[in-house]
């Protein structure tokens, strides 16, 4: 449906139909023989084949319109979200509030059928989402450990692999990254090279940041000279960390915290990935199969923190 209504592509409905046929045929092949098409089929392979067929048929970014609309909406809400966060005097409570903001923002995910449906009906309110998170303890809940470690000794440099456009990046991740910058950390935001579903690309993220900066080049009073936006080299809603751009590989060499945000990167493909430095996997569970696998609820939250004993 998204491809069909893509106004940037001539004869989009015809091409969308071809996409549907071609992808369905490949899925049928994989059912018969899981080793066909470079299988066995996992998240990464299924996403990669889908994106390749779309591109072959001339579709570059079928979610462009909805991403632009959501980014514009979230930009207007950004100052309020930051002010509410800054008003929390207790450091621990402020960190928890920012983490809840990441979960609330991460709901904007058009890769989830249920959420795409809810979204098309009446959009999503960020503040309502913050208040309506499932109660703790979450299905994987290391928030207390993460908080305690941050309060005891902040990290020097965090690399954050980001997820969706709109509320996710602008109202979830950016206020969180701003807090890290405020406490003297370096922050690298690694975003997709090419569009995939409603994920943010690194060029879109640079554009958003230029709109959010004030006349002093700050993010609501916080110096952002230690903030870098990097091209992750990825073109999928999931990520294979063995295939990142040279830029991200280089920027990560002295990182002491890696954050993988969102269901695709943080849960479906890297929940058990081990790092040489501290790591945080954070995201909301938005597919019934993933909820079942984890033994949690749909829209449950995952915050998995691993501290490396130096």
Automatic annotation (TrEMBL):
<dbReference type="InterPro" id="IPR002791">
    <property type="entry name" value="ARMT1-like_metal-bd"/>
</dbReference>
<dbReference type="Pfam" id="PF01937">
    <property type="entry name" value="ARMT1-like_dom"/>
</dbReference>
<keyword id="KW-0464">Manganese</keyword>
<dbReference type="InterPro" id="IPR035073">
    <property type="entry name" value="At2g17340_3_helix_bundle"/>
</dbReference>
<keyword id="KW-0479">Metal-binding</keyword>
<keyword id="KW-0533">Nickel</keyword>
<dbReference type="InterPro" id="IPR004567">
    <property type="entry name" value="Type_II_PanK"/>
</dbReference>
<protein>
    <recommendedName>
        <fullName>Damage-control phosphatase ARMT1-like metal-binding domain-containing protein</fullName>
    </recommendedName>
</protein>
<keyword id="KW-0378">Hydrolase</keyword>
<feature type="domain" description="Damage-control phosphatase ARMT1-like metal-binding">
    <location>
        <begin position="9"/>
        <end position="302"/>
    </location>
</feature>
<dbReference type="InterPro" id="IPR036075">
    <property type="entry name" value="ARMT-1-like_metal-bd_sf"/>
</dbReference>
């Amino acid at each position: 449906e998204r491809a069909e209504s893509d106004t940037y592509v001539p004869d989009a409905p015809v091409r969308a139909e071809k996409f549907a046929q071609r992808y369905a045929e490949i899925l049928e092949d994989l059912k018969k023989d899981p080793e066909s098409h470079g299988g066995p089929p996992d998240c990464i392979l299924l996403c990669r084949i889908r994106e390749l067929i779309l591109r072959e048929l001339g579709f570059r970014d079928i979610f462009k319109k909805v991403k632009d609309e959501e980014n514009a909406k979230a930009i207007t809400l950004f100052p309020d979200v930051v002010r509410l966060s800054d008003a929390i005097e207790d450091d621990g409570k402020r960190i928890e509030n920012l983490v809840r903001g990441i979960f609330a923002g991460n709901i904007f995910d058009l890769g989830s059928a249920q959420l795409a449906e809810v979204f098309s009906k009446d959009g999503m309110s960020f503040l309502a989402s913050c208040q309506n998170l499932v109660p703790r303890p979450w299905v994987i809940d290391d928030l207390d450990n993460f908080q305690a470690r941050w309060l005891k000794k902040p990290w020097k440099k965090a690399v954050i692999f980001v997820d969706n456009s709109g509320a996710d990046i602008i109202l979830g991740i950016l206020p969180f990254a701003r807090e890290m910058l405020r406490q003297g950390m370096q922050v690298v935001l690694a975003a997709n090279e090419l569009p995939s579903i409603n994920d943010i690309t690194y060029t879109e993220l640079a554009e958003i940041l230029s709109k959010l900066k004030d006349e002093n080049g700050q993010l609501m009073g916080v110096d952002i000279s230690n903030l870098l936006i990097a091209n992750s080299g990825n073109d999928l809603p999931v990520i294979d960390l063995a295939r990142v751009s040279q830029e991200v590989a280089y920027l990560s060499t002295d990182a002491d915290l890696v954050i993988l945000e969102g269901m695709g990167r943080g849960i479906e493909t890297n929940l058990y990935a081990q790092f040489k430095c501290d790591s945080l996997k954070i995201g909301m569970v938005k597919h019934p199969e993933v909820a079942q696998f984890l033994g949690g609820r749909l829209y449950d939250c995952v915050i998995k923190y691993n501290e490396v004993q130096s």
